Amino acid sequence: METLNVGIVGAGNIAPAYIRGCEPFDIIKITACADILVDRARAFAAENGLVAYSVEDLLARDDIDIVVNLTIPAAHAAVSLQIIEAGKHVYSEKPLAINRADGEEVIAAAKSARLRLGCAPDTFLGGGLQTARKAIDDGIIGRPIAATAVFMAHGPEAWHPNAGIFYLKGGGPLFDMGPYYLTALVHLMGPAARVAGSARISFPERIATSEALMGQALPVEVNTHIAGTLEFESGAIATVITSFDIWGHHLPNIEIHGEAGSMSVGDPNHFHGAIHIVKGGTREWVDIPHTHSTNIGRGAGLADMAYAIQSGRPHRASGDLAFHVLDIMCALEESAAQGAHIEIKSTLPQPSPLPPGLADGELDA
């Protein structure tokens, strides 16, 4: 297939991971970057053999097929709309938007323009979660009936150079880390139907201890501890916790419990992770060998979309999947505020698994 040229908008913390992650895939080639901080774009371009442009000039180029939106969450929807208006396919970092209305506008714009819309996270395409999906599809633990998903830490103020954005609208543990966990659950068990949640702001401000922000007070305007229950269309029920208020814990990242056994899954923020299974009637957890490559990184979802653009098939890290996850996150916040269950109006087919045995740098066409 033809190699598609890719431009990046936003040369911040996550951009180097896309450079590394896209490199193995011949179907995509990152050639250009842009950032509202021109000097940062130029420095990033020089480090990675790219050409730096203004955002407007990058979007005007005929030789850019796909634009990756790596701006801050609050800007995701507006920048994605700008990319679509320029006639480019767009792949956005998560979340798709910070509210449903903006997410719906981006979805509608892409469909109207007949352009592809993809969105992170794509970690569910890694060997860990693909192996887990195959084990479930093969019936190893039987029909899933329950799950737990837990992200708990004490916030990014100890290490992130721009930690303040994580405590403003569009941030918080649910919108920052929740997409990894919720996307994994939808990948493994299908779409959600109803949620209930509780949430709180535990501290009115945070004091940064990172080198870049040492001693700065960071105001908090989003919930920093959210606990919820998800009911899936299949009937399975999951318990989900996301928190920036916890100093340490021993809880597993994700567990799936089926009629015939249970499965422990690795950190959905990564592409690898061991898979452990215990069968009903036994007490011994056993490792399941990976059936899919773990030598994969951020950019796999972008490469999958590039294949799909040319073959016409659906792509896996899709805008519809990202909107469903956004819908769930918004519903958890609404449930906490209203003290009531919230129905999830969006739905989609469960993302198709990757076939096992693909070589590194290869995805099914």
- Based on CA atoms alone, the radius of gyration comes out at 20 Å
DSSP summary, beta strand count: 17
Tell the overall outline.
globular
How many H/I helical runs?
10
- Strand line-up across the major sheet: 16-15-14-13-7-12-11-8-17
Number of domains: 2
Going by CATH, the homologous superfamily of the largest domain would be Dihydrodipicolinate Reductase, domain 2
Write the layout of secondary structure elements.
Layout: E1 4-9, H1 15-22, E2 28-34, H2 38-48, E3 51-53, H3 55-60, E4 66-69, H4 76-85, E5 89-92, H5 100-113, E6 117-119, H6 127-137, E7 144-152, H7 172-176, H8 178-189, E8 192-200, E9 205-207, E10 217-219, E11 225-232, E12 237-243, E13 254-258, E14 261-265, E15 275-279, E16 286-288, H9 300-311, H10 319-338, E17 342-343
Verbal overview:
With 365 residues, the chain is of the alpha/beta class. The protein has 2 domains: 141 residues, Rossmann fold; 162 residues, Dihydrodipicolinate Reductase, domain 2 (2-Layer Sandwich), CATH 3.30.360. The protein contains 10 helices and 17 strands. Strands 16-15-14-13-7-12-11-8-17 form a 9-stranded mixed sheet. It has a 6-stranded parallel sheet with strand order 3-2-1-4-5-6, with helices on both faces. The longest helix has 20 residues. The radius of gyration is 20 Å and the shape is globular. The termini are close together. The mean pLDDT is 96.
